[in-house]
Structure formats: structure tokens, C-alpha cells
Design a protein that fits this description.
Structural class of chain A: alpha/beta
Distance between the termini of chain B: 44 Å
Keywords (chain C): Signal
Number of strands of chain A: 10
Organism (chain C): Neoaquamicrobium microcysteis
Protein name (chain C): Urea ABC transporter substrate-binding protein
InterPro entries (chain C): ABC_urea-bd_UrtA, Peripla_BP_I
Shape of chain B: globular
Chains: A alpha/beta, B mainly alpha, C alpha/beta, D mainly alpha
Radius of gyration of chain B: 23 Å
Strand content of chain A: 25-35%
Oligomer: heterotetramer
Structural class of chain B: mainly alpha
Radius of gyration of chain A: 18 Å
Number of domains of chain B: 1
GO molecular function (chain B): branched-chain amino acid transmembrane transporter activity
Mean pLDDT of chain B: 85
Low-confidence stretches of chain B: 376-409
Mean pLDDT of chain A: 87
Number of strands of chain B: 4
Chain lengths: 248, 409, 431, 548
């Protein structure tokens, strides 16, 4: 498959911290419009991979391309966010001393430089968009509450809402259902499937029930490289995967 | 409705504080100049000078609050910007002395004459011109803040490291200005001023005018800072304070946000310094001392950071206490000041304003609960809740950015 | 919403009013004493030197009251702390004069303190007695300089080294501020005048509170090993002296080889160190505690009784306060008033005994006459006077060795009435 | 030094030879009629006249060669000689109170009691002391005691008086100790260079001096240059160049040593902070005050020793060390329990609280001990210097370097090898995990802070030996300490060590070129720039471990 047709293209990526190889010759390709689930035990390199894609960590070697042509290793976090990659962190990070509404406002697609932001006036278009997103993440009632007062699950949703507000081409979602009730988990899966209709998504998750509900192609990472890739059934049948998860 | 909008845009309480400042700007000079000496309501000359000094300190604290309270940059070197603004003003005032110095040298200030300088160094050129000097009052601190911030914020120097290097900056500047070879009067600094814009600095009318200008400048600075913090950029600033890397991942550049706030803050501090110098009559390198900058942090913390008007209250209160103690109980002054810091950090982590705000919120919540018991809620909620929320969001919920759960960084 | 803000504004207003009232009340609480302001740093970096001077002032006021006060009134000392913060000094000076209504102020140590309060004394027409040796180049109508000017300390000391010790090579070491810079400028001009070559003069400046003297002491050692008799003229300030002398002692620079003559080191500074390795190093002052006169003995006795510690030393600035206070008291008696203008007229020419067996006269330039004493440090932390001027030296406000100031003269009596009278153009500059 | 206790040990033969030589010399000198005065007469002239007149008397006394004069001259230099006003007798005094016992300074015989008021001390100044030193050199150059002869030769080298040449020739002829003979030859050469000696003698003297090396030799050669004949000139110039080359090399070594010494002072000041700030994250602005309290503890300990156990003075620092550690450590624990523990996780607030605390401590010390400097003495083993291949190394600096390294090593062992250190690191890395593993975290916090403060107290003991003991002592070091810790990398003891030494050496290499003030400014600017390059200091931990 030619690189130019991909949404995300990682080839031979390695990175080491103080001699520890967190990512080891990792190659991964995501098609446009695809949703991919990534699993792997602790320390498999999932978060580091996200860091590389979002520009937080620079790889020692290897190629990282976004949207076929953009070399991500040449850009920093803010650039990459503006190029259209949104990220949700493992630990929900919303702006706690802002209201739910302001959180979304800050994330809304728009100019990010200083003076336009300083003289920004909220348009009706933005009001509508915030309303829509609030409806999607079911936080209409809490619109004017401070984010710090939300429950854990609501914070996760708010963060997803912020991703939506950014309207990225690619969403990186790190453990979206950690700490959620079963009902919330199911709801989140539904939400992500909805999102995936119009965006490319990478979901990192431990919760196998959730991954099953997503019903997408799965990549299992181990020690910084791809161990196995395919449908969840295929991957979970892979002996190496079983070995890694259950220990030797 | 328009006033209501304006009130919201600028922040209700802030507007009131600004209004009070404007009233003071008129009343104090009027009472000082118009009432006869000995009249019980007359503000004595001494008080005018003192209050003027407090207000410049308040402006410095306000400047610090913009970066510390809203962007989470704890600058331990803000005194440097204040002092640089002061030096720019001092240089103008020195040039105004002209040939009335003790050596009657028309070109050189006295201290250069007796150290055998033969000509005015190039960096003194132009300071005879008021407008140039006023420009420099803003440009010099602003430029230093820009250069310093450009490097520091882009290199992602944060937290304690940033605080310590701001301290190193002001310390290095202090040592430099102490050097006589720098051409700023060394340890003695700049003093013995005569005129400002043709008016003798020691005349009551000049003093009263300077006081009024200071109060108005402080009110203006307060309104500008308020407008900034209430804009979308202000929200980004708070976002940077609480979760810097998160803002980066949604496309903002925290380094520029910080740089903007830092430069605006430095310019405000520089203006405060420029207003300070003609009122106290001297500027010397002691203003760069790291301890002075720490004291500014303390005023801000005591008043309540992240509130804009809190630091103003803090600066005035602490300095009034200093005036009183150093006169009434000179031996106890440091015990009182030190004890105050410890007590405030332990018992009033949000400062005076934050704590009073907490009490009020609690009281209102209680009243709201009891009211809710009586009447079903929701009749005119449509306009009220946002305001309540805004009022709260202006107070940082927790004392410091660092206490927040920080994202992985 | 509105009532909250009015409450706040009321609170603020009330606080401001309370502050104003408090000031007004103190301002009107006049009683029947003559008030003397004491303006010294009791905290911060300068407290180390100035606290003693505050105590001396309290003692002098106390003694005067025992003698029946002045003009039939008791004296009252008003002490404030300027906390080594110079703008605060100006604020406190204003407070003393305007709020406490003091009739004279005794205070300041550093030049910057004096410079910062000067405009206040000028504006409010009050009196300041400044007790510390300083760089000169100043004479102000409202200020009386009871410490030494450079011609009362630096130049005689250099003369002594040149004539008695045969010094040919000079290290001028000082802290980087105005007093050492000016003094060294004057000395450099003076030495060159006396035929010392430029390469035989080394000038070195260090920051305040400098504590690592290894390099500089070894530089001095190197400079001193060029085969010519070398001496160090030290204008190193306060705190930096102890580590400097320790390093000197430890690097084995004996006074016989390279003597150090200091202008800012007195008994009080030596109290902080073991002087055995420093025996023979010199200081130039106008007073030493070891001076054997009845006046001095009684002064020391009174001091020890007042402070309740027989180990406490006395020093030159203390004597300056003693002289200044007595001069002011004599002028008050002479003028029959504490009014500043009356005192300024009356005090010129007033003679009071100093502690070294002579008399101090207030000169028209507001400086006083002083003997110059050169003392060598002894093992007990005291000085042994090895040389003194035969006559009293009148304090010179404007140095004759700086080109711009050589033509200036200060005279606060009619008809000149000017602090910087140009003897060439016959005009009074800067007014 | 010459001392009376040596007297009974003198072999009779030696004494005889010595007397013979001395009287011979005396006889020679007596040929000059102006000097034909008795020793007694000359001694009586000592109290009179100007210092320069009296210096001349001292030279005449030395010329008599009378051995009794040595102790008299030593007493004169020490300022112990007195003159009885009525009789004009020159005496030394002993005893306490009034009257005092007087002893004839020349004969050493008691002359009864004298009232304090009836005697006057004979004043000395530097030029007189210099004359006395030279005179003692002349008088003791034949002493049977090797060290006395050596110091006599040293004194004569410094005096470089041509009149000493015959005496030195004599002494060299009978000297059998190589070291002393060399010193005497050097003294002779130095004297020779001040004469109109023959070209050969002159050249030989230049060689001797050039071989000696060092600053003093350089000075002698330089001052000999203008008067030298054309033939002698090239030799002198070559000698000067040789010495200068060697000195240039030494200069580098000396700067390194000064840098290490300054660095070790910084290390001492900063290392406690590396614990409280670096390991615990408390921005401890009261750290300097802990150092100050350590110094005051030394003062108190020395005072107690001076009053009660004067014999123990040389041990005072050894006693002060544990005392200072305990005092500051306990204060540190009290601070941690009382204030800091409420502020964990709010590092910038600890800054405010501890700064307030530092003001309180400073003012408290000022109230208790007074605002002025307090005297802390150097024990004898901390005074003076020794020569290390031409570099003068002062003992106090030397011991402080060793002490700083020792404190560093001990701290390293405590942190790495003891269970307390293990618990400290565990608590600071993951408080919740540590406490769930049964570590009493509050206790460990208090001990850690106590340890950091205690080490600051130890630093105070050392700093009392080189700096002022005043309430401001701590303030002078606090900023430098923070710079060192931040420069080295927070949380890394090795970083603090390397940081302190680097800053010390950099500072000392800049100082000769830029001056002390600019050197300090450059170092600060350097730190600011360095932090831009490495925002977490020299020895920053890398990777995700830091970010957790």
C-alpha cells in the first residue's frame, strides 16, 4: 500500500531512554477512516508510541508520516494538534478550573495564536457547535459547572468532547473507559463507534470487553514492537499474545 | 444591558476596585491641596507620598499576579522589571537636573563628574526627552522579559527551575548595577532629582498629581489585566497554568501564551517602577535585591492570587504594616512580617480575598440550600448561574497550579 | 449584587480612614519634650554596624536628660528602623519630621542612605547629623557631617605609610561602591602627584559581602613581591573584612611585609575575629577606643553601664555621634531654640570637646575639625596609636585632588551661603 | 625559634666557639667609634625618639651580637617591653592586677614590683618590628638549633642587608646542615645583589636566586636589574624568565585549587539543600539560617570552652560539629513537623513559609546574640598555610575541602546504604506506595528534613572559620546554594558535587581577568543560559521516570 494513502504511517521507529528501548523497530499503518484498537501489557510502549505520534517524544530512528505526506518528526505538539491529530490521555486531563463549556470552547477548532485569541468573540456558530458536542457527550446539564466537579467518567467524556471540538482527522484515545461503570463503558463504545464513522481513530485499551464491543482490527504491542495484528479473535488466539499476557 | 455586558467583560469586582481607585485619585489630592493645613480631613503631604508609594507597589503586585495567578509562572525576579522602569524614569529625571548639579556640569550627572567620566555614555542618550524616557520605561523591561521569556519558555523551563533563574536574573542585574563602571551611579543609584516636566518634584502640587496619575494608572492596569484574563486568551492562560501540556495537545503554544503574559506583566511592573521613582526620590540597585522580589510574591499571596484586586489589597496592607511596625516596634518588625508569611501560607492558602470569597460562597450555598427548601428552583436561573461560575473560576480553586493533578509531562 | 460592593468599598474606605486618622492622631499628639530622631538600620545587612549607633544615641539622650535636658525641656528619642532599605529611609525620615515632629535627626551609615534622605531634609528644612566617614564631594545646608572626609583619613594615612614605612607600591582595594571609588580616585591623584608611577598602583574592587578572598590576597602577594615596599589601602566595607583579614592572616601576609591600612575597619569589626595574626595592620580613624584621655575613659564607662556589658567596644562613628549630639545641644542652648534655621546659623563655630583630648569645631562647610590617628591592630582587638597629626585637620567637603571639585568650596554662612561655591566663576552652582 | 629551654642542652664547646666568633665580630664592629656604646646604654635608648631612630638603635644592638638581646627583642616585637618612667629601666611585666612583677628585659633578673601607672609600654610599629626581625636573624644565625638558624637565614634573606655578608660567610663556613646552608647561601646571594660586587660574585648570586624560584626571588631579581652591569643583565633576565614561566604554570594550578576550595564551600552550603530541596522538593529559604545557626553553635561551644576548658580549644570544632548537627537537625525536625508537613505538594508555598521563617530566625538570633559579628577562633591547626610545590595552601581551606568531601561521602553512604536512606528515597519517589509498605512516612519526612538541616548546621561550623558569624551569614549563601543545586540537577547528589566544583573553578578562572564582580555576574548568566539548554540541570534523570 502506498504511504500516501495512509492516515498514519510508522516505519522502523525506535526510541530509547537511558539505554532502555521503549519502542523497538515499530511499524504500524492506519488507513484513512480506520479505527484501530491497540492492546498490550504494561510497558509495551503504547503510551510512548502516542508520544511519538503527537510530537512529545522524538524517535531515535524511523519514519512517522501523517496523512501520507506530513513528516511528524519535524513538528512539535502544537503543530501536530493543528494538523489534525487529537489526543485523549490515559489519565483524564481537562482544565479543572474552567467550566465544561469553556473547556470545549478552548478546544474548538480555530486560530490558536495570541492576538486572535485575545480579541476573540464567541460566534453563534461556535455556540451551536458547543451545544451539539454537549449533547453528544451528554453533559448539557453540567454546562456551567467546573470541570473539577465532574465525576471520573464525565471527565473522560468531556475529554472526548474536547477531541470532537478540535475536529481532528485522527484521534488517539488512551484508555477511555478506565474507571468507568459497565453502563458507561458501553455508552463510550457506542460513542467511539459513532466518531469512527467520520474520523480515523486509535484506541488503546486494556478492557477486552470494550475492545470486543468496538469490533475493529487489533494490534498487540510487546516490548516496543508489534507482536500480533488482526481481528480480536485472531490476536487472542495467538500463542505469543497469550504468553505475554499470562506470563511465562 | 450594555453596562451589564461591560461589567461582565471586565469583571464586576475589579470594576468596583478600579472605581474606588479613581475616586481616591481625585479625593486624596483634592483634600491635600484644597483643605487648609491642620484640617482634620486633610491628607497630610506625608500620607500622599506614602499612599502613592503603596499604589506603585500594588501595581507591581498586580503585574506579578497576572503571571503567577493566571499562568502559573512564579517569578522571583519581578523586582528587576520594576527597577528597570524606575531607572529609565530616574535617568530622565537626572537629565532634567541639567547644569544645576553640584559641579554645574551641563552634560554629565554629578556622579559621572566626580568619577572623571568625560562624556555621556551612549545608553544615556535621549533620556532628556520625556517621551523617549517613557517609551524606555516600557520597552526596557518588556524587551528583557521578551528575551528572557523567549529562551526560557521555549526551552520549557518550568516550575522551580524557572523561579530560580528569574532570581538569578535579578541577582545578576543587582550586581551589575552596583558596579560603578556601569554608569548608573553604582550603589548610590540616581537621586537628587529636581524637576519632572518642568515642575519641581518636591512641590505639593507635583506630588498630588503624581499620586493621581499613579492611582489612575493602577486602575487602568487593573482594567487591562482584567480584560485580558476574561478574554479567551485569559482562559488559555489558566489552562496553561493548570495543565500546560494538555493545551499543547489541543494546538496552543503555551510558550507564547506565557511570553505574552510575561511581557505585559513586565511592562506593567516597569510603569509601576517609573511612577515609584519620582515619589520616593531615589532609585538604587537595592531594588533588584532578590529579597524585594520575594516580598512582592508575599504581598500577592497574602492578598489572594489569581484575583487581580487581591494583590492590590495585599500590597497596601503589608506595606502599611511595615510602615507602622518599623516606626512603632522596630525590633518586632521582622517577627511580624515572618510570622505573617507563615500564617498566611498555613491558614489562608488562598489569601485574604480567596478566603473571604470562600466564606461568602459557603454562606451563600447555605442560604441557597435553605432557599431551595422553600421555593422550587429555576425561575430566573437563566442569567444568574453563569455569573456565579465566572466569579468562582476567577479564583483559582486550588492555591497553586502545582497542587493540581498534572498531566504526564 | 450591588450591596456586596458597597460593603467592600465601605470596608476599604473605612480602612483608609482609620489609617489617616491614626496618622492624624499621632501628628497632633504634641507634648512638652524636644524630640530627637534616630534613623538607623536595626535589621537587614547594615544592622550589624548601625544598631550600636542607635544605642549610643539613646545613651546620649539619656545623659542629657540627667543633666536637665535642653532649654528646660526633657529630650525624647524617637527610634525607627530603616531596615537597610533606602527608599524606606526616605519614608521614615519624612515620618520622623512630619509626623513625629522631631527637631533633629541623627542617622544613616551608608552614603546611599544619606543621599536618599537628603531631599527630604531639604524639603522639610530639618537637620541631619551624619556620623560616618564618607567620600566627601557634598555639602548640604541641612546636613552636618561629623565623620571624616577623605582629607581627614585617607591622605594622612597614605602620608604615614610613605614617610614612616617607605612604601613605594600601592594596592588600593575596595568594595565596589561610591566611597571606595571616590577615595581611590583621590588617592590615585594624590599618589601620582607625589611621583608614584602608574604601574606601582593596583586598584581592585570586589562586591559587597565578598567572602572568597583567595585570588585577591594572592594577587596582592604577587604585586608586593616586585622588590619595592608595598602596602594595601583598604576601603573594603563592613562584612567583607573578616574573611579578608582571615585570608591575609592565613596566607601569611605579615604587617611587616605588606601592611594593610583600612578606613572602614574599627574595633567593632575586629570584635568578630582573632587578631593575633593581624598585629601591625593599620587603620586610620579620628578616634580609637584605646586613646588614653579622661573624656574617653568616662565615655567608655558610661557606655558600658548603659549597655550593661563591659566587653562592648566603642568606635569612631560612636564618637562622631557624641560630638554631633553635643554640638547640636550647644547650638540649641546658644540659639535658645530648636528651630532648624536658628540652629543652622548658630552651630557654625560651635566648639565641643572630642574624646581624644582636643576640640571639634563646626566649620562653615558643615564638616568638623578632627585629629587623624593611625593605629596598629593589637592582639587584644584594640588599636595602638602609632602616629597622629599634630594639629586638628579641618574637614574638606570638596577634594583638592579631583579636577572638577578643586575649584569648589562650601560655606553656609553669609554672604556665600552655598554648598558648592565655585571660586573661579564666583557663582554658586546647582541652585 | 630561639628559646631559653634550649640553654642547658648547649654543648660547652659549641658555646665557646660561638662566643669567640661573636666577640670577634663585635670587636670588628667596635672599630666604628659611633657605635661604641654599651648594650645597656643602647637598650635604654629603645623607648626614646621616633620609630626610625629606634630602628637604628635596634640595628646597633644586633651589631653587638649579645645573645641576651634575643629574648629582649622578641619581647619588643610582641609589644611586651615596658619602661619604668622614673628609672628608665627596660623591663617585662608579669602577674595580674596592680602592682606587677617587673623583670629586667636584658638580664632576666627580677627587679621587684612596679605600679601599673609608673610604667609605660614601649610602642612598636611595623618598621620597628621589621628591624627587630632582621636583628634577631643576625643574632641567631649561629644558634645550635637548626630551625632557629633556618628562620634566621629566612629573616636575613628578607632583610637582604649587604652588611650581613661577612656574618653569613662565617655561618655558611661552619654550617653542616644542607637545607640551612642553602637558605644561608640564598640570603647571602640576596644581600650580594644589593652590593657593587664583582661580576663573578654577581653572576653566582643571580644563579642562586634564580634556582630558588618563587615570587620573592622574582622581586629580588627585578629590583636588581636596573643597577646591574651590562654583563650581568642577560643572566638576570634569563633568571626572571625562568621563574616567570614556572610561576605561570603554578598560577593555573593555584586557580584550580582556589576553584576547588570555593567549590567545596559552595558544596557545603548547598549539600543540605540538595536534601531538603533536591530530594524532598521543599524550597527551603530558611536553609541559610540553618547554616547561620550552625555557626552560632560553634560560637557558643567555643565560648563555653574558653570559659571552662581552655585546654580543649583545639578540639572546639570537633565538639561543635555534633552539637551543630543536633541543634540544627532538631530545629529542622521541628520546622518540618510544625510547618512543612502541611505544605507537601505545594513547593512554591514552602518558599513563602520558609522565607518568613528565615526572617524570624534572623531577627531572633539578632535579639539573642546582638547584631554585630561574633568571634569564632581558628584552632591552631586551622591557621596559617603550607607550601605545596610552590602553591601556598591555607590550612583552613584545606580542611574545609576535606570536610566537604567527607560530608558528601557520608551522605552518599547514608542515602545509598542505610535503611533510613532507602526509606527516604522510597518516600520521595512514591509516598503512597511507601506508606502502604509499612514505612512511617511522616517520621521519614521529619528525619529527612532534619538530616538536610543538620548538614546545613555542619556547613555552618566550617563557614564560621572563613566568614563572619553574624545574623546575615546565611543570606550570603542561600542564592548560591540554589544555583548550585539547580545547576547540578535537582535530586542528584553527584550533580550537586559536580555543580559546586564547576561553578567554583569557573568563577576562579574568570576572576583574574574579569574581576570578582563581573566573574560572579558571568557565572549567573552562564547558569541562566545553561538551564535553557538543559532545563533540568547537569545531571538530569532522563526518560519517563522523571515525568511520573
Amino acid at each position: 500500500m502506498p504511504r500516501t494513502d495512509t492516515m498514519l504511517y510508522l516505519d522502523g521507529v525506535s526510541v530509547a531512554f537511558d539505554g532502555f528501548r521503549a519502542i523497538n523497530n515499530l511499524s504500524l499503518v492506519l488507513d484513512k477512516g480506520e479505527m484501530r484498537a491497540i492492546i498490550g501489557p504494561n510497558g509495551a510502549g503504547k503510551t510512548t508510541m502516542m508520544d511519538i505520534i503527537t510530537g512529545k517524544t522524538r524517535p531515535d530512528t524511523g519514519e512517522v508520516f501523517f496523512d501520507g505526506t506530513i513528516d511528524l518528526t519535524r513538528h512539535d505538539e502544537a503543530d501536530i494538534a493543528m494538523l489534525g491529530i487529537g489526543r485523549k490521555f490515559q489519565k483524564p486531563t481537562v482544565f479543572e478550573s474552567h467550566t465544561v463549556e469553556d473547556n470545549l470552547l478552548l478546544a474548538l477548532k480555530g486560530k490558536r495564536s495570541i492576538f486572535p485569541t485575545l480579541f476573540h468573540r464567541r460566534s453563534t456558530l461556535e455556540e451551536d457547535r458547543i451545544g451539539e458536542i454537549l449533547a453528544v457527550i451528554r453533559l448539557e446539564e453540567r454546562r456551567h459547572d467546573l470541570a473539577e466537579n465532574l465525576s471520573h467518567g464525565q471527565k473522560q467524556w468531556l475529554e472526548i468532547g474536547m477531541l470532537l471540538a478540535q475536529d481532528p482527522k485522527l484521534l488517539l484515545v488512551d484508555e477511555p473507559v478506565a474507571g468507568m461503570t459497565d453502563a458507561e463503558t458501553a455508552e463510550t463504545a457506542r460513542l467511539l463507534r459513532d466518531i469512527a464513522k467520520t474520523h480515523s481513530v486509535i484506541v488503546v485499551e486494556h478492557d477486552m470487553h470494550f475492545v470486543r464491543e468496538l469490533d475493529v482490527k487489533v494490534t498487540c504491542l510487546h516490548e516496543g514492537s508489534v507482536l500480533s495484528e488482526g481481528s480480536l479473535d485472531f490476536v487472542s488466539a495467538d500463542e505469543r499474545v497469550v504468553e505475554v499476557y499470562l506470563g511465562r | 444591558m450594555i453596562t451589564q455586558r461591560l461589567l461582565n467583560a471586565l469583571g464586576g469586582k475589579v470594576l468596583w476596585v478600579a472605581a474606588i481607585l479613581l475616586v481616591i485619585a481625585v479625593l486624596v489630592p483634592a483634600s491635600n491641596l484644597l483643605l487648609p493645613v491642620g484640617h482634620p480631613l486633610r491628607v497630610p503631604n506625608y500620607m500622599v507620598a506614602l499612599l502613592g508609594k503603596y499604589l506603585t507597589y500594588a501595581m507591581l503586585a498586580l503585574a506579578l499576579d497576572l503571571v503567577w495567578g493566571y499562568v502559573g509562572i512564579l517569578s522571583l525576579g519581578h523586582g528587576a522589571f520594576f527597577a528597570l522602569g524606575g531607572y529609565a524614569m530616574g535617568m530622565y529625571l537626572m537629565r532634567q537636573i541639567g547644569d544645576r548639579g553640584v559641579y554645574a556640569n551641563p552634560n554629565l550627572p554629578d556622579f559621572m563628574v566626580f568619577l572623571n567620566w568625560s562624556e555621556l555614555p551612549w545608553y544615556w542618550w535621549g533620556f532628556g526627552n520625556f517621551w523617549f524616557a517613557m517609551l524606555m520605561v516600557m520597552v526596557v523591561p518588556g524587551l528583557l522579559a521578551f528575551v528572557f521569556g523567549w529562551f526560557a519558555f521555549r526551552s520549557r523551563v518550568t516550575g522551580v527551575y524557572l523561579s530560580i533563574i528569574t532570581q538569578a536574573m535579578t541577582y545578576a542585574l543587582m550586581l551589575s548595577f552596583f558596579r560603578n563602571d556601569m554608569g548608573f551611579g553604582g550603589n548610590n543609584g540616581l537621586t537628587d532629582f529636581k524637576d519632572i516636566l518642568g515642575h519641581p518634584v518636591q512641590a505639593s502640587a507635583t506630588r498630588a498629581t503624581l499620586f493621581a496619575v499613579t492611582a489612575i494608572a493602577l486602575a487602568a492596569a487593573l482594567l487591562v489585566c482584567s480584560a485580558i484574563t476574561r478574554s479567551k486568551l485569559g482562559k488559555v492562560m489558566v489552562a496553561v497554568r493548570d495543565a500546560e501540556s494538555r493545551t499543547r495537545f489541543i494546538g496552543y503554544r503555551p510558550e507564547y501564551v506565557k511570553l505574552f503574559a510575561f511581557v505585559v506583566s513586565a511592562i506593567t511592573a516597569g510603569i509601576a517602577g517609573a511612577l515609584y521613582v519620582p515619589q520616593v526620590g531615589i532609585i538604587n540597585p537595592g531594588e533588584f535585591a532578590p529579597a524585594n522580589s520575594i516580598e512582592v510574591v508575599v504581598w500577592t499571596a497574602i492578598g489572594g492570587r489569581g484575583t487581580l484586586y487581591g494583590p492590590i489589597i495585599g500590597a497596601v496592607l503589608v506595606n502599611y504594616a511595615k510602615t507602622w511596625f518599623t516606626g512603632a516596634y522596630p525590633e518586632l518588625w521582622l517577627f511580624a512580617l515572618g510570622g505573617l508569611f507563615v500564617a498566611v501560607t498555613l491558614f489562608l492558602p488562598k489569601g485574604i480575598v480567596g478566603t473571604v470569597g470562600d466564606w461568602r460562597t459557603r454562606w451563600r450555598d447555605r442560604r441557597a440550600i435553605s432557599a431551595a427548601k422553600i421555593a422550587p428552583s429555576g425561575t430566573d436561573d437563566s442569567s444568574d448561574p453563569p455569573k456565579v461560575v465566572r466569579a468562582r473560576s476567577a479564583d483559582p480553586a486550588a492555591p497553586l497550579g502545582a497542587s493540581k493533578p498534572q498531566p504526564a509531562e | 449584587m450591588n450591596h456586596r460592593f458597597t460593603l467592600k468599598s465601605r470596608l476599604l474606605g473605612a480602612a483608609a480612614m482609620a489609617a489617616l486618622l491614626a496618622q492624624a492622631v499621632t501628628a497632633h499628639a504634641q507634648d512638652d519634650t524636644i524630640k530627637v530622631g534616630v534613623l538607623h538600620s536595626l535589621s537587614g545587612t547594615m544592622a550589624i554596624s548601625e544598631t550600636t549607633l542607635k544605642d549610643v544615641m539613646l545613651m546620649l539622650v539619656d545623659e542629657q536628660n540627667k543633666k536637665g535636658g535642653l532649654l528646660g525641656k526633657q529630650l525624647e528619642a524617637v527610634v525607627v528602623d530603616i531596615a537597610s532599605d533606602w527608599p524606606l529611609a526616605a519614608e521614615k525620615a519624612r515620618e520622623l519630621i512630619e509626623v513625629n515632629n522631631v527637631d533633629a535627626v541623627f542617622g544613616c551609615w551608608t552614603s546611599v542612605c544619606r543621599k536618599s534622605v537628603l531631599p527630604v531634609f531639604e524639603e522639610l528644612n530639618s537637620l541631619l547629623f551624619y556620623p560616618v566617614q564618607y567620600e566627601g564631594e557634598e555639602s548640604q545646608r541641612n546636613v552636618f557631617y561629623t565623620g571624616a572626609s577623605p582629607n581627614q583619613q585617607a591622605i594622612p594615612a597614605v602620608d604615614y605609610l610613605m614617610n614612616e614605612e617607605g612604601v613605594e607600591r600601592w594596592v588600593l582595594a575596595g568594595t565596589d561602591y561610591v566611597y571606595p571609588q571616590t577615595t581611590n580616585k583621590i588617592l590615585e591623584a594624590y599618589l601620582k602627584d607625589k611621583g608614584v608611577a602608574a604601574e606601582d598602583i593596583m586598584i581592585n574592587y570586589t562586591p559587597f559581602g565578598h567572602s572568597d578572598w583567595q585570588t585577591i590576597v594572592s594577587d596582592i602577594k604577587n604585586f608586593g613581591s616586585a622588590g619595592k615596599k608595598t602596602a594595601v589601602v583598604s576601603t573594603i566595607n563592613g562584612d567583607a573584612n573578616v574573611p579578608f583579614y582571615r585570608e591575609l592572616g592565613n596566607q601569611g601576609i605579615a604587617a611587616e611585609d605588606i601592611p594593610v591600612v583600612a578606613f572602614s575597619v574599627g574595633e567593632e569589626e575586629l570584635a568578630g575575629l582573632d587578631t593575633t595574626p593581624l598585629v601591625g595592620h593599620l587603620s586610620a580613624w579620628n578616634y580609637f577606643m584605646s586613646v588614653d584621655t579622661p573624656e574617653n575613659a568616662s565615655f567608655i564607662e558610661t557606655w558600658h553601664a548603659f549597655i550593661g556589658d563591659a566587653e562592648r567596644v566603642t568606635n569612631d562613628p560612636m564618637e562622631a555621634h557624641y560630638i554631633g549630639f553635643n554640638m547640636w545641644a550647644a547650638a540649641v542652648e546658644k540659639a535658645g531654640s530648636t528651630d532648624a534655621d536658628a540652629i543652622i546659623d548658630a552651630i557654625v563655630g560651635v566648639e565641643v570637646p572630642n574624646l581624644t583630648g582636643g576640640t571639634a569645631v563646626m566649620l562653615p562647610n558643615h564638616h568638623i575639625t578632627k585629629p587623624v590617628l593611625i593605629g596598629e591592630i593589637q592582639a587584644d582587638g584594640q588599636y595602638d596609636v602609632v602616629w597622629e597629626t599634630e594639629d586638628l585637620v579641618p574637614g574638606d567637603a570638596w577634594s583638592d585632588y579631583l579636577p572638577e571639585s578643586a575649584v569648589l568650596e562650601a560655606d553656609w554662612t553669609a554672604p556665600i551661603n552655598c554648598g558648592n561655591y565655585n571660586t573661579e566663576t564666583k557663582t554658586c552652582g546647582g541652585s | 625559634m630561639f628559646s631559653l629551654s634550649d640553654t642547658p642542652l648547649w654543648p660547652a664547646a659549641f658555646r665557646a666557639v660561638r662566643m669567640f666568633v661573636l666577640s670577634l665580630l663585635a670587636a670588628l664592629l667596635l672599630l666604628a667609634p659611633a657605635r661604641a656604646q654599651s648594650v645597656e646604654d643602647l637598650v635604654r635608648q629603645l623607648p626614646e625618639g621616633s620609630f626610625s631612630d629606634r630602628a637604628a638603635v635596634v640595628s646597633q644592638l644586633a651589631a653587638t651580637g649579645d645573645a641576651r638581646l634575643v629574648s629582649l627583642l622578641e619581647a619588643l616585637a610582641a609589644g611586651d617591653l615596658n619602661v619604668v618612667e622614673e628609672t628608665g629601666a627596660v623591663v617585662t611585666l608579669s602577674g595580674r592586677g596592680d602592682p606587677l612583677d617587673a623583670t629586667d628585659a636584658l638580664t632576666g633578673e627580677g627587679v621587684g614590683e612596679v605600679a601599673k601607672a609608673s610604667v609605660e609600654r614601649i610602642r612598636v610599629n611595623n618598621s620597628l618590628r621589621r628591624a627587630v626581625r632582621a636583628a634577631i636573624g643576625q643574632l641567631t644565625v649561629m644558634s645550635p638549633n637548626r630551625n632557629t638558624r633556618l628562620s634566621a637565614a629566612g629573616a636575613m634573606f628578607q632583610a637582604a642587608d649587604p652588611e650581613n655578608i661577612p656574618l653569613l660567610d662565617e655561618a655558611i663556613a661552619q654550617e653542616d646542615d644542607d637545607g640551612v646552608r642553602r637558605a644561608m647561601e640564598e640570603a647571602r646571594a640576596a644581600s650580594m645583589l644589593r652590593t657593587e660586587a664583582s661580576a663573578d660574585d654577581f653572576a653566582a648570586a643571580v644563579d642562586v636566586i634564580a634556582a630558588r624560584g618563587g615570587r620573592a626571588s622574582l622581586g629580588i631579581l627585578t629590583s636588581a636589574l636596573p643597577a646591574a652591569s651590562d654583563e650581568a643583565r642577560p643572566a638576570i633576565e634569563a633568571g626572571i624568565r625562568a621563574i616567570e614561566n614556572r610561576l605561570a604554570l603554578l598560577n593555573v594550578a593555584q586557580n584550580v585549587w582556589y576553584g576547588i576550595s570555593l567549590g567545596s564551600v559552595l558544596l557545603l552550603a548547598a549539600i543540605g539543600l540538595a536534601i531538603t530541596f533536591g530530594v524532598m522538593g521543599v524550597i527551603n529559604m530558611a536553609h541559610g539560617e540553618m547554616v547561620m545557626i550552625g555557626a552560632y553553635t560553634t560560637f557558643v561551644v567555643q565560648n563555653v570552652i574558653r570559659v571552662s576548658f581552655p585546654g580543649l580549644f583545639d578540639w572546639s570544632l570537633a565538639i561543635a560539629l555534633p552539637a551543630a548537627f543536633l541543634v540544627t537537625g532538631l530545629i529542622g525536625i521541628a520546622i518540618e513537623r510544625g510547618i512543612i508537613r502541611w505544605l507537601y505538594g505545594r513547593p512554591l508555598e514552602t518558599l513563602l513559609a520558609t522565607w518568613g521563617l528565615s526572617l524570624i530566625i534572623q531577627q531572633a538570633v539578632r535579639s539573642i546574640f546582638g547584631a554585630s559579628n561574633r568571634e569564632v577562633g581558628n584552632p591552631s591547626w586551622m591557621s596559617g598555610s603550607f607550601d605545596f610545590y610552590g602553591i601556598a595552601i591555607t590550612w583552613n581551606r584545606f580542611w574545609i575541602v576535606l570536610f566537604a568531601l567527607a560530608v558528601f561521602a557520608i551522605l552518599l553512604v547514608v542515602m545509598k546504604r542505610t535503611s533510613l536512606g532507602l526509606q527516604m528515597r522510597a518516600v520521595t519517589q512514591n509516598r503512597r506506595m511507601a506508606s502502604s509498605m509499612g514505612i512511617r512516612t511522616p517520621w521519614v519526612d521529619a528525619l529527612t528534613f532534619g538530616l538536610g538541616s543538620g548538614i546545613a548546621g555542619l556547613a555552618g561550623v566550617a563557614l564560621s572559620q572563613i566568614d563572619n558569624v553574624s545574623p546575615n551569614l546565611g543570606q550570603g549563601y542561600i542564592i548560591d546554594s540554589f544555583m548550585v543545586v539547580v545547576f547540578g540537577g535537582v535530586g542528584n547528589l553527584w550533580g550537586t558535587l559536580v555543580g559546586a566544583l564547576t561553578l567554583g573553578v569557573v568563577n576562579k578562572f574568570l576572576e583574574p581577568y574579569a574581576g570578582a564582580v563581573l566573574a560572579k555576574i558571568f557565572v549567573l548568566v552562564f547558569i541562566i543560559l545553561f538551564i535553557q539548554k538543559r532545563p533540568r540541570g547537569l545531571f538530569a534523570l532522563k526518560g519517563r521516570a522523571v515525568e511520573a
